[in-house]
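## tool: complex_structure
## caller: assistant
## args:
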Amino acid sequence: MKIAVLRFPAANCDLDALHVLRDVIHMNAELVWHRDFKESRFDAAVLPGGFSYGDHLRGGVISAFSPALKEVKRMAKDGRPVLGICNGFQTLTEAGLLPGALLRNQSLKFVCKWVQLKVTTIRTSFTRKFVRGDVFQVPIAHGEGNYFIPPEQLKELEDNEQIVFKYSDFKGNETPESNPNGSFDNIAGVCSPEGNVVGLMPHPERASERILNPFNNEKARLVFESMKEVLVR
Amino acid sequence: MTEKEFVAEVTIEYKPSLSDPEGATIANDLMKRNGFEHVDRVRTAKLLRIHLKAANKDKAKSMVDKMCRELRLANPVSQDYSVSIA
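## result:
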């Protein structure tokens, strides 16, 4: 079993993701430069955060045309787990692997803070170890995380259970105050129809160990533990 | 046939149904507050000025259109684009 962490120019948190996969959930993981990536060697892929290609034009759009994304599409198609975090989420939407788009934050500001996330479905490769409705804490750090989907497509997302994470308060209420960036319907993360491709703006790799987490928990680790369960079953 | 130089301008903006907080701030806090109260609204956009060679203007236009679609110069979910060529 081997997991690829894809490195694009101006990636960050790629080493954090690698650390969680290797040292926290004890999986075999490898950092791979995007131009060298071949899907045949890997069972899963993580597209980490960052500001690939300087976010020029739009976050993730230039990475979406990297040859690596053709490889990632093959993985997605045959059901292997693919996770996009922050810039990785933007890249997966720009590559057409996930629905919707990430707009500039409503406040026009870069927002860096801890938020509450509610798990709205446990059918995906990255949420199966949660309980539906779980609320956990995780940091965000982005300027273009304002999730948008045309209102007429929202029902389709809901019917297909493709909304995975929502911004909420500590009790799981989806309030305007708990929405850090203006995301439509408080949506923080979505999945492919099959549930093996998941993208989210927050950074679970920064919250997977107690020592990093001001709320003294490590619940975000379940994102990675869920993938591990899919891979080793 | 010799190719000529053209300059294409691609304007990329959010679809009208999406809010544009930057445009709203420019309209409300800069223009209306400083004596230009006839301003109704402002929408911001990104402009790409593309210098390219093509056999004629139509070919230049179709090449730029193709780039807009295939390279997602505009995000089809959230943005519209327009092309003008000189």
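## assistant note: The mean pLDDT of chain A is 97. Residues 3-232 of chain A form a domain with the Rossmann fold fold (CATH 3.40.50.880). Handing back to user.
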